[in-house]
Amino acid sequence: MLRGSSRERSQQTNFCPHATPPGIVDRILELRKHRGSGAAPKLRRVIERGFGEAPCVATVHRILQRHGMIKIRKPRPRRTHPGPATTSMGRPNAVWNAHFKGHFLTGHAKLYYPLTV
Asked: CA quadruple 49, 53, 57, 63: dihedral positive or negative?
């Protein structure tokens, strides 16, 4: 038995052929620091104009996320159903509703604002 062959080793690879080159990653991070709050699509365009080749927007975004340069926003609260009607209806026809259906021009060239009851 060979010495050290029984110890556990990491399964992680040492090289990934399609990984973004470190030089491009450094350019992305440098541009973000220099420009301040540049978003991934804008940074990609700047890199493409300046250096000719650039990774896709999703890759630029993941690189910025990986290095902690993107603030995670809290999701907006969802609008929920308002709930049951607040008006008490004790007897039939106690509460009537009026609906505005929009305005239109009459034959006399005057605006008409109909309400339906």
From this structure: negative
Number of domains the chain contains: 1
In a domain, 73, yes or no: no
* 72-100 average pLDDT score: 82
The whole-angstrom separation of Cα 31 and Cα 48 is 12
Residue 7, in any domain of the structure: no
List the beta strands (DSSP E) in the chain.
Answer: 99-100, 104-105, 111-112, 115-116
pLDDT, tens digit, 9 for 90 and up, residues 34-79: 877 778 888 888 888 887 888 899 999 999 999 988 888 899 999 9
Classify residue 76: in a domain, yes or no: no
Is residue 104 in a domain?
Answer: no
